[in-house]
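The records we work with from here on pair a chain with its fold. Taken together, the C-alpha cells spell out the fold as the letters spell out the chain. To see the layout at work, look at the sequence and C-alpha cells printed below.
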Amino acid sequence: MSQPHPPLDAADTDAAERWFLGRGLPAVLRRGALLRRVAVRSAPALAALAVVAANSVLIVAISGKHTVDIAGRPDFVEGVVLGLLALVLPLAAAVGWLVSRVSADSRRRSIAVAALVVTGLGALVGGFSNRVLVNVLLYGIAAAVIVVGTVTGIGSILGWALRLTTTNLRHLAGMAARALPVLLLTFLVFFNGSVWVMAATIGRPRLWLGMGFLFLVAASFLVSGALEQVRPLLAESDRLSRAERANVLFVVTASQITQVISVAAVTGLMFLVLGLILISPPLLEAWTRGGRSDGEVLGMTLPIPDALIQTTLFLSAITFMYLAAKAVTDTAYRTKLLDPMLDDVRVTLAARERYRAAAG
C-alpha cells in the first residue's frame, strides 16, 4: 500500500503551481489557483505590449503621423519608420522572454505596472489612430485579452508551446528539409503568373476566408493525430477530469500547431524577401495586369506590392497545410518531437497525482 503524501506548505504549493503552469497544464491546479499572481504571470506579455506601444510613440514622434502610409520609394524618415516596424515584433518577443526569466514576484509585479503605464502613455501619445479614445480602447482590449488569457490558463499553454518550439528549432529545420520537394513545388507556384493575377484580383477578406479554411483543414489533421497519440496516455491516468483531459489534448495540439506554423511563417518570409529582390515594376505589371505597387498590412500602407503580400500569405497557408499532414505521418517527427513531448506530459501527470493527494 502506498504511503499518503505529506501535505504541502504554502511555498511548496506555490512552487508546484508554477511548475504545472510552466508545462501548460493549468487544469491540474486547484480551484482558485489561477486567480493568484495574475499580475506576476501576465508581466511578460504586458511587457511585450508595452514595447509595441512605445514603438508607436517613436513612429508618431519621427513621422508626425499616427498612420503609416508609405507608397513608392521611401525617404529617410520613412525608412526609419519601416525599420521600427520590422524590429517591433522581434524586440517585443525578446523583452517578453527576458521578463519571463525574472524569478522574483516583486520585480515581475513592478514590471507589469510599468508596462501598463507605458502602454497607457502609448495610447495617449502614440497609437494607431488620431483619436485618443480609439487608441485607449485598442490597447485596453489588448491588455484585457492578456489578463483573461492568464486567468483562464490559456497563456500558460501558449507559453509552453512557444518554449517547446524554440527548443526544437533544430528538429523543425529537419522537418522543413524533409518537406523540401513540396516546398520546391510551392516555389514553382510562386512564379506562376495565374497565381499572381488571382492574388492581385482577390480581396483581402476573401483571402483570409480561404486561409482560414485551409487552417481548419490542417488543424483537423493535427487534432485527430494528437487524439490518437494521447489516448493511451489518458488511459494511464483514469482519474483525470474532463477539463484535465481536454487540457492535455489542447496542449499537445497547440504545441504542434505552433511548431508547424513557425516553419510555415519562415517559409513565407523567405518568399516575401525573394519577391522584394526579384520582382521589378515591369514584371509586376506583366504578372498582375496593372496591380498595385504598394500594399496594406494591418491598416498600414507599405512599399510592398499587394500581390506579393497576398501570394506570400497564400503560399504560407498551403505550406502550413502540407506540414500539418506531414507531422501526422512523419516517423522522424514523432521520434524527435512528439514522443519527447508526450513523455514530458506523462511526467507532469504523474506529478499531478502527488500534487492533488498532498494539496487535498
